[in-house]
Design brief:
Blueprint lengths: L2 E8 L2 E13 L5 E5 L5 E2 L6 H10 L6 H7 L7 H13 L17 H9 L12 H14 L12 H14 L6 E3 L5 E3 L1 E2 H13 L4 H9 L1 H4 L5 H8 L4 E5 L3 E5 L5 E6 L7 H11 L13 E5 L2 E8 L6
Antiparallel strand pairs: 1-2, 1-12, 2-3, 2-10, 4-7, 5-6, 8-9, 9-10, 11-12
């Protein structure tokens, strides 16, 4: 049974409720915090990007620094993001036309406004998954694998992604779906996803990805993005949000959480994860501002989205 993880309170009236599940692991890997149905399978969406980046790295893609961070991130389409993606593609001898993610506007509003003023439109390179797609293409180029079918579930790279995810989560991924960007998407239990998050900070194999994310958090999200601010507030931590209310985070010590809000809304996932990390014993005090989401009325705060006590059905 799902639990109420957060409430939307407007002028002291509970307007909406977000139900879902949380799996929280202690540094020793035991399930020490459970809400809702942590054993349920979820589609991890973009929380899988760090593991896809790890697979690309293992496949020989020459990724490091901000280029590895953007491969593991969901960037907001700012100019410095585009430059990093172009660099990955250029070193692989490719251009933006090789990307098979759909064209979109950048999520960053100033960047979108600048493009409109310049008479430009949607593009693949501004799509928030273009870093991941560029990394996949770089891995294919490094191995002489086919480029035009890099999104096929039977492609050597995607088979490696699945293998990496299985190793990080300690379970066999299932089912297989298609993500919003067109890449294969492998399901995991929420607890398996938490194990994968924990592996980012504790596994020597995954450490390069975590280090890149922590060193360049602005490439994992963007200016003012919650994923970016989370890592800045809690040095040594990693976090990654995904569509449909999925979120993962892990501390340097190995506390790890995976969140799934069942209605698909992401607006409370960071606050829910912070509450879970605190319950596990992690010091989340520096990230306290991220645990409060204001509710506005007439442009001013009239309430908040607040996390709820454990045990709420």
């Amino acid at each position: 049974m799902y639990e109420v993880l957060a409430e939307v309170v407007r002028n002291d009236f509970v307007e909406s409720r977000h139900y879902g599940s949380v799996a929280g692991l202690a540094p020793d890997g035991t399930l020490a915090y459970a809400r809702g149905v942590p054993s349920e399978t979820v589609l991890p969406r973009s929380t899988t990007k760090p593991f896809q980046a790890l697979a690309c790295l293992k496949a020989g893609a020459p990724l490091e620094g901000e280029r590895l961070a953007i491969a593991a991130g969901s960037h907001t389409g700012e100019d410095f993001h585009v430059k990093a993606v172009e660099g990955i593609l250029s070193d692989a001898g490719l251009g933006a036309d090789a990307l098979q993610c759909p064209p979109t506007w950048p999520e960053d509003e100033p960047a979108k406004a600048a493009l409109i003023r310049a008479g430009e439109g949607e593009s693949r390179i501004r799509m928030n998954c273009s870093g991941k797609h560029a990394a996949m293409l770089a891995a294919c180029a490094a191995n002489g694998w086919p480029l035009d079918t890099y999104l096929s579930t039977t492609h050597p790279l995607q088979l490696m992604v699945r293998q990496v995810m299985a190793g990080c989560a300690s379970e066999e991924p299932s089912p297989v779906a298609v993500d919003g960007c067109g890449a294969p998407l492998f399901g995991l239990t929420l607890t398996g996803l938490a194990r994968a998050a924990r592996s980012l900070v504790l596994s020597e194999d995954a450490r390069p990805v975590a280090d890149a994310m922590r060193a360049h958090p602005e490439y994992v999200g963007g200016t003012g993005h919650a994923n970016t601010e989370f890592m800045r507030a809690l040095p040594g931590s990693v976090d990654k949000g995904g569509a449909e209310g999925v979120f993962i985070a892990a501390t340097a010590a190995g506390h790890a959480v995976a969140v799934k809000v069942i209605d698909g809304s992401p607006r409370a996932t960071t606050a829910i994860a912070l509450r879970a990390l605190a319950a596990l014993g992690a010091d989340t005090t520096p990230a306290r501002p991220l645990g409060t989401v204001p509710v506005l009325g007439g442009g001013r705060p009239v309430g908040e989205i607040r996390t709820t006590p454990e045990g709420r059905p």
